[in-house]
Amino acid sequence: MNPKPPASTVAEIAEDPRSGMLLIPAHDPEYSHGVGLWDDARDVYRAFVRGSAVEGWEKGVLRAKVAGRSRKQMVLPVVVQLVPRPDNDHNPGAISVAAPVSMGGTDHERHMGYMYERQLVSLGAPLRTLAAVAERPVGCHALVEVDQADIDIEDEDDDEDEDDGGVLVVGVRQAYSLSSLRLRLPWWEDLQRMVIAYARTVRPELILPFVGHWTSYGEGAHAELLRRTGDKEFAVTLRARNGKLRAWYEDLELSVLVPSGRDFFDRTLRRVEELGGTAVARAEEHRGSLKVFVEDSSPPTIAGHGLA
């Protein structure tokens, strides 16, 4: 098993006045994630790269180890916006990578590509949750890979061309090809912890939807729910009473989520009790069962005479 990478150097999500976004802390470049750049958004990416390579940009170029490279790579630090795209027909959980707000236009107009689905398995839920609770656009640190380009910098037209998919930019003494984009997102456990900490400050009553678990409906509850709403996703109120956790839709009790000591709802019961007995969660109708989303999928451990 691969060892866990070192944690991010900054441990909190914070507003960034320069970019106008809520910015996720940067992780080590070695563990950065590639982005599937969209062919139809090539002009947007070119404009983003050229806007990042402003006067004196070469001084900001770093040399860092990145995945897939045998030796240290030149990279230009940038920031990008992360935009959930439930309108994506292929994957409603998709997350778009867009140029930052400072570039102007809507986030769809600034769209450059998508996170790969293999990354969404662990990072998708906390990123979508952060975007849902944040009061401003969500962004992260990223890197544009930089390579030297073998062109004549005296040729005024060369800087408008592309070189092997990269955007050609002329520096003070050298021409460069700025190509792939990589996201410096934290390790998924660190990201989840950061999102919980941030969300507690703006929506303390909310159970964050990181992982879903199924439960059966109470007698007659399913039919009544379908009569009231055709929505596949909806908010439920969780109420903790006498060691039991119940899910309600408005005044309709949908299910009793009975913790068993090995059940996935144990930690959620405790969290709702900490909130005074009531909290809000996200749920789905899923093939005749109720799917309730919770923050922690692991049962609490036993320590001494009680739960840890």
Describe this entry's structure for a reader:
- This protein has 308 residues and is of the alpha+beta class.
- It has 5 helices and 19 strands.
- The strands form 3 sheets. Strands 3-7-6-5-8-11 form a 6-stranded antiparallel beta barrel. A 6-stranded antiparallel β-sheet has the order 12-17-16-13-14-15.
- A hairpin with a 2-residue loop joins strand 14 and strand 15.
- The model is unreliable at 302-308 (pLDDT under 50).
Outline:
The protein has 308 residues and is an alpha+beta fold. The chain is 19% helix and 35% strand. 34% of the residues are buried.
Question: Main attributes?
Answer:
single chain; 308 residues; alpha+beta; 19 strands; disordered C terminus; 19% helix
Could you estimate the helical fraction of the residues in percent?
10-25%
* SSE class: alpha+beta
Number of helices: 5
Taking all Cα atoms into account, the compactness measure Rg is 23 Å
Measure the end-to-end span.
Answer: 27 Å
Give the biggest beta sheet. 6 strands, antiparallel, barrel
Low-confidence region ranges: 302-308
- Compute the average pLDDT: 87
Specify the overall morphology. Answer: elongated
What's the layout of helices and strands?
Blueprint: E1 14-16, E2 21-24, E3 33-37, H1 42-52, E4 62-64, E5 73-84, E6 95-98, E7 111-115, H2 117-133, E8 138-149, E9 162-163, E10 166-170, E11 175-183, H3 188-202, E12 211-215, H4 221-228, E13 233-241, E14 244-249, E15 252-257, H5 266-274, E16 278-286, E17 289-294, E18 302-303, E19 306-307
Parallel strand pairs: 2-8
Antiparallel strand pairs: 1-2, 3-7, 3-11, 4-5, 5-6, 5-8, 6-7, 8-11, 9-10, 10-11, 12-17, 13-14, 13-16, 14-15, 16-17, 18-19
